[in-house]
């Protein structure tokens, strides 16, 4: 099943919702300097590293991810980036910006914020997105999916409380829009359509589950969303 999952998810531009518009907004809110040291923690296949490079060409960019094939791909496609396999909770650099799109939920947002704090340079900022409930009464199908995929997913007041509890102040925050979801689900849908003919039982199961996830967003996507927060230690 793991092999089938990576078959579906290999070669995609990104592995979570996100877009150039929201990333540019975060850089503005963070006032990220021209020659910033920037880490993309949980960088996946590197779409945001490319966007960061376009917005801050003189920056020193690093990408970190547990999944070695993503890092191999970044090394091949973006040689300007220092890409390493590693755990985002175990850093050794100092950064003006730690960017993390849809990845901090892996080790846990609170653990990530605590681990990143000592690795922020003077005035350094964290910009990260996390999936949150947008309603206290989500559709049953949405509740069932996210309880399985992200148990303990928070609502906005809980999210703000954990950021502040970790010793950070929120400089700015916004929900990602439909374009950010399409940037993820669009290429994923195309890949699934290409894989469907001739798929074996295991692959078909992953394709069906992924299709259901996309349909869930199209039907009940208003019940949840990715919230991008730009935060600085108090
Ligand atoms: C949902 S994907 C998002 C990837 C990327 N940020 C993007 O938007 O395309 C989450 C990524 O976080 C990585 N990840 C999860 N836990 C991690 C950890 N503790 N350290 C480093 N990477 C981690 C996963 O391997 C995966 O590539």
Automatic annotation (TrEMBL):
Residue ranges constituting the Methyltransferase domain according to the UniProt record: 38-124
Keyword Transferase included in the entry's annotation: yes
Annotated Pfam families: Methyltransf_25 (PF13649)
Protein's name according to its UniProt entry: Class I SAM-dependent methyltransferase
Native organism: Pseudotabrizicola alkalilacus
Gene Ontology MF annotations: methyltransferase activity
Any GO BP: methylation
Listed CDD domains: AdoMet_MTases (cd02440)
Keywords: Methyltransferase, Transferase
